[in-house]
Amino acid sequence: MSWSFGEVRALSIKAARGAGMPWGLAEEAGFAVVWLEELGAPGVQALAIYLSEIGEYTADTCPIAIGSRISDSGSRSNIFPRKAYQPIFFAPFLSSVLGSASVELRWSNCAYTLNSVGFGGVQVEHVLSNGVHLCEMRENILTTLSTHKKTRVTEDRKEPIQLLESFAKKTYAPATEESRTRGAGAGLSDND
Questions:
Q1: What is the Cα–Cα distance from 184 to 53, expressed in whole angstroms?
Q2: Which residues touch 46 (CB under 8 Å, ≥6 apart)?
Q3: pLDDT classification of 111: cutoffs 50, 70, 90
Q4: Helix residue spans in 19-145 (DSSP H)
Q5: What is the CB neighbour count within 10 angstroms for residue 176?
Q6: What is the pLDDT of residue 59?
Q7: Residue closest to 99 by CA, chosen among 140, 149, 148, 40
Q8: Which uninterrupted H or E stretch holds 106?
Q9: Which pTM value belongs to this model?
Q10: How far apart are alpha carbons 188 and 160 in whole angstroms?
């Protein structure tokens, strides 16, 4: 089984909303997950871990909120060092303001190089993290990154997809007797 990027984006938005993220940031989460997945990074897993850890959404350590501020301002100055969950989420937002520059982001035992088209030098097992990490940025790294874009999210993401589905369910309205009668399903009469 695999999922289209449209399906993953919609699910990510619902899951983020289910975890208490405001609508705008939930949409940014959907964008970030797909951007990462297209480049082969574990965006689905990163969001699943992040939503499982946060308990309650706060903007101070949310990499999606921080990333949104970076892309909205069009500048990366005075942002780093910064403490955040899942610093891999900085990548999609930083890439939009880098132009032809490249930077290196590091936290814990991870470092990756990022430019406007992708990132490299990162091992997947080191990208995902638990808890809050201090992320630092070093500018003016001269590198050429190759990009090999994926077209779908594959079976290896099944468990984190299921976790996102459990968060998404929190956004669904509970069924009532009236909705059963008037809405989906046949209700009291089946006139087919």
A1: 35
A2: 33, 36, 86, 88, 89, 127, 128
A3: confident
A4: 23-38, 43-54, 63-73, 90-95, 124-127
A5: 10
A6: 81
A7: 140
A8: strand 103-107
A9: 0.84
A10: 38
